[in-house]
Amino acid sequence: MAEFKEADAEQLHQEDVDIKGGDGGSHTLDPEESQPAKEDVSSASSTVVKSEALVGDSDAKSSITTSDRHISIQTKLEGLEGLTDLNGAGRKACPLCPEEKFKACYSHKLRRHLQNLHWKVYAEFEGQRMCICHLPCRQLKPSPNGDQAPGRLGAHYHCVVCSVTIARKTDMISHLKRHVNKGETEASYLGSSDVSFEEPAPSGLAFEIMKELGTNVQLMPNHTTPQKTDTYFNRKMKTNRQLVFCSLAVLAEERNPLDCLDAFGATGIMGLQWAKHLRNAVKVTITDVNEACVKMIRENCQLNHIRVEGSRGSSRVPDGGAGGGVDGMTIAAVEVAKMDANVIMHLRPFDYIHLDPFGTAVNYLDSAFRNVRNLGIISVTSTDTSSLYSKSLNVTLRHYGSNIVRTEYYKELAARMVLATVARSAARCNKGIEVLLAVALEHFVLVVVRVLRGPTQADESAKRIRQLIHCQWCEERVFLKQGSMVEENLYRQLPCHCHGSMPGKTAVELGPLWSGPLFNTGFLRRMLFAAVQHSMDDIQPLVKTLICESECTTLKSSVHGTAALTNQVECGVVIKVQKVDECNTSDHSGKRKTGDEPGNVMKKLKSDASLEHPAFYYSIHRHSIRGMNMPKLNKFLQYLTEAGFRVSRTHFDPTGVRTDATLDQFKAVLTKYSVPTYTNSSATQNPEETLRVVE
User: Which fold has domain 618-676?
Assistant: First the structure.
């Protein structure tokens, strides 16, 4: 019986070979091939290696490089069948299953297996089928008894975008949706007609050339995944990079040349933008602790015709570049060094330091304030939004030493918490800070501070760090008054009366937080001028909002300014900047003038600082009255102004209102100008009017 089945199988296989042969004539089995003892039964791993070679030969004509694509990702059934030689004689193993799961068989049975299992069980993305794979690609966790999981649990799919392995099909679909939301598709790194690529890297990956603010940088295929790449790049941080650039441009107008440090280079795009647009006004140093990042930064320098200085004072051509071709076209020079950020900030002084690590920057603040020059600027970008926005309170307490809760003003709470940490680090080095800018958006918190040397300045900054009392019922808040004496009842400092009308404890103590202003109006106006000058249209509305917020005024009253500032029209935008004779503090030779003494600059800084804006803001939707239609936000701002309060919108919350009114006063004005919502019950109260309408 077994011999009969074997003979039938050989006959079916012979028919398949004859059909595939076509005009090529009949093909007879070799006697040696028909012997079961000499059949070519290979293991799953060796079959996969051979199939990868076949795939490379079949897709050689394609314009998209698929060297890093798994063999289970195919576009046509012929490509899946081409993973193994179905026309050959003998038994064949499945290229996507191990031998213990699917034993080697003849071509007709293997073809049905590929069609009915692997080709039909799939997840599709942009025309690519991610067929189910049973190979041991995943590291399964052993059971408590020490045994491995069953073989059926090893089935998985390979993502076409990031090559990650996912077991469930529904999880793979959700994973692909996240790629689409982030703008990460297969075409973003496998090539397209409108994106230029360099030669493939030694690992077989293609570089993408991305242009931002006139600067070209190479990006790795997995540049959006920090866990899988060294040269991380986030496109959503473009606003952050432009704000930092404008702050540096303002400082370059005060004095030059400046020693600038981009402590976490990654791709080096930020430092390259500084050098390419500010030219001789800055001396840029880009550092990174990773060798791959340093190599890519040097290649990006060559791509932008920027000379690389390996060490201070010694210039050399970037690695891989031609000798005279690059030097003859250089437009600027940067220093690229493989060094830890803490080390280089301890060794050398800088005028401008930008810290943008992946996560929190608290580990680098002490080193940054150690050697920064007087009246220099330090910008800190924090991307640990989970701890800053009250999602991981234990991490918040560990990194920032602050106790916070989720509030309606949580973004401003995060900015003030970072500033308090920065002020404490500066005070340990006998330095004070002046806050120039504090921005908290969806993905990051950016603070820009000016460094003021001296113990007196340090003491003044330390006094700005206070605790905050927050009412959990109405969300009223107030900073604790200065003093070392213990008050009998802290609830008396709150303007609300929730403690007397509600049972139990109604308020919490948050902090320590920065209680001073978050903006410098004069500095923001010069940043707006720099944004217009360098054609940064994306951040101009944001900077205008920051100017109005710093003055606590509406946009109309902010545009028509005082006589101390001159109006200029640039690209159709009305801006106010200081007069030329006040801002021009540098020679054409690059040396600082003798009149640029610390005392004179301090006087100018005091003139830039206007009346402090009120702390925090109220959300109009959070405090709306049930059954009442609220007025429009701009109308409500006008009503508050007519009531005698300072008001402005805030960038922290699109529905927030920054005002010096208390919460009770805020609600009183909101209630006064709110209109009752029309209901059916109100119509029945006036029967005479209802009859008139019916008639």
Answer: Phenylalanyl-tRNA Synthetase; Chain B, domain 1 (3.30.56)
Please state which CATH class domain 208-311+331-481+491-514 belongs to.
alpha beta
The residue among 513, 365, 364, 360 whose CA lies nearest residue 426 is 365
- Which one, of 271, 259, 257, 241, lies nearest residue 372 by Cα? 259
The whole-model pTM stands at 0.65
Helix or strand run (H / E) with residue 555: helix 555-559
Rounded mean pLDDT of 590-601?
Answer: 44
d(CA 182, CA 302): 29
d(CA 234, CA 269): 11
Tens of pLDDT, residues 392-418: 999 999 999 999 999 999 999 999 999
Domain coordinates of the chain in residue numbers? 73-137+154-182, 208-311+331-481+491-514, 521-551, 618-676
φ/ψ (deg, to 5) at 425? -65, -40
Q: Do domains 208-311+331-481+491-514 and 618-676 have the same CATH topology?
A: no
Question: Contact at 8 Å (CB) between 24 and 76?
Answer: no
Q: Which residues pair with 332 in a beta bridge?
A: 306
In the chain, the amino acid numbered 416 is R
| Cβ–Cβ < 8 Å for 509, 467 | yes
Q: State the greatest distance between any 2 C-alpha atoms of the chain, in Å, as a whole number.
A: 108
* 563-594 per-position pLDDT tens digit: 334 443 333 334 344 443 333 333 433 334 43
Q: How far is CA 617 from CA 387, 658, 675, in A?
A: 21, 4, 23
Q: SS3 for 277?
A: helix
CA distances from 116 to 77, 107, 120, 131, 507 (A): 11, 14, 6, 11, 64
State the Cα–Cα distance between residues 580 and 460, nearest whole angstrom.
Answer: 31
Nearest C-alpha neighbor of 467 from the set 394, 383, 402: 402
Q: Are strands 350-355 and 258-262 parallel, antiparallel or unpaired?
A: parallel
Question: Of the candidates 539, 382, 389, 402, which has an alpha carbon nearest to the alpha carbon of residue 446?
Answer: 382
